[in-house]
Every structure is written in C-alpha cells, then in structure tokens.
Amino acid sequence: MPNEVVIITQARMTSTRLPGKILMRAGERTLLETHLDRLADVGVPVIVATTTNLSDGPVVELCAALDVPVFRGSENDVLERYQRAARAHEARHVIRVTSDCPLICPDVICAGLDVYLGLKSESIYLSNGERRTYPRGMDFEIFSRRSLDFAAEHARLPSEREHVTGCIRTSMPDIRHEHCTDEEDLSDWRITVDTVDDFKLAKLLIEDHHAAEMDYPGLKALLKAHPELMKINSHIQQKPI
Asked: For residue 21, what is the DSSP state?
C-alpha cells in the first residue's frame, strides 16, 4: 500500500565511538525504544533501516516485539539501504532521522513536515541542519522519493553513499533547499548520543527529568533551568562528515 510520507531511521549496533548504544537503557527502556516512541507521535509510518550484520539481530528482534517494520541492507551503502526501504514501503516522501537521537522532538518534525507538504513539490530538500539553530539530536531531513532515487543512481563518492543526502543537496539540478530554524540559536547544545558522556546526559534527562515526555519548548525550558546538564558533554566534538 503506498505511503505519502514515511520516517526512515537508520540504526546499527556497530557505532565506532559507543558500540551498542541504541540498546543501552535509560529508565525502563532502551534508547531505541524511546526514539521510536517519540517518532510515533509524528503520525506517519516509521521504518527502521538496519544492516544485514549478525550484530544487528537484536535490533530486529526488538523492532519485531514493538511491531515496528524493519528493512535490512548494506552497512556502508546507507543510501541504497534508504532507497530500498522507501521502495519496499512505496513511500512518496521520506523523513530521514538517525537512531542516536533518542530525545528527538516530534513537534519539531511535524512543523517541518507541514512546511514541506505545503510547498507541494518533489524538488524540495528541507532540513533543520543546514542552517542550524536546533541542538544536535533534533536533526531531520525531508525529501521526495524522486530525489532519493536520483541520489541512488548518481552518487559515486563513498561519503555520498554513507551519508545519504549529499548528492541530493549538491548535485541534483532542480533541488530547492528549505530550512527550518528556531528563534533561538541553541546549536551548541548536544542531545545526541555518540559517546559515554552523551549517554550520561541522556540517561539523566530521561530518568531524573522525564525528558522523554517533553515537547521541544519543555525540553528547552528544562535545560535552561539546569545549565549544568549541558556541561556534561559540552567538550564532545561532532564527528565530521
């Protein structure tokens, strides 16, 4: 059955900095469960795109228990994995997120999706990362299946295959960039999980402050009220693309 919009989140156990992080527990759930629960509030189908590695068997088992669809593909050619997942679910448009963002805010994604759908074009690339005002960990990209197919056909560089949207953003001739920004620049905040200290922060936010139940304004208010929390991982440098 065709889907107008799907969310595809990439997930694997072989993170270089913090292996197995998505199945680490904060509160009563794994980070992946928290991530998927928040994505469900966007109101469109969610697909987990993982790898064919044996190490990702536990990801598949968890998703089966949660009744979340899974697509398994190449570990390194993430672009192909996305294209095949989108094709398998007959998606016209794709929201791309990553599973290292357990506290990603559905209200932020919904606002971006409303803008994207209102533009009524298959030549739009919309994100909140190119002109970053949101913290790391709130990242999403929205693009059409047409754009994804173009990238899968034309991307040649290993970096373009690994990071999915590079060819769309730089090489698609008729692509139009749209940007979601917030009125406050909080781009130096880090609410993604890539290191032990990132996990310490996420665990505190979830267990002690009930952040998994908050929308973006609530999360901002919490972190402004407790500036010491953001110091936990402020020294971490984002891995370059």
From this structure: G
User: How many other C-beta atoms are found inside a 10 Å radius of the C-beta of residue 57?
Assistant: 13
We find that the CATH architecture of domain 3-230 is Alpha-Beta Complex (3.90)
State pTM to two decimals: 0.96
Q: Where are the domains of the chain?
A: 3-230
Distance, in Å, from the CA atom of 101 to the CA atom of 149, rounded to the nearest integer, reads: 26
CA distances from 48 to 3, 32, 36, 61, 86 (A): 15, 10, 9, 12, 11
d(CA 157, CA 149) in angstroms, rounded, equals 16
Q: Which helix (H) or strand (E) holds 38?
A: helix 31-40
pLDDT in tens, 131-152: 999 999 999 999 999 999 999 9
Q: How far apart are CA 34 and CA 28, in angstroms?
A: 10
The percentage of residues in the chain with a pLDDT greater than 70, rounded to a whole number, is 99
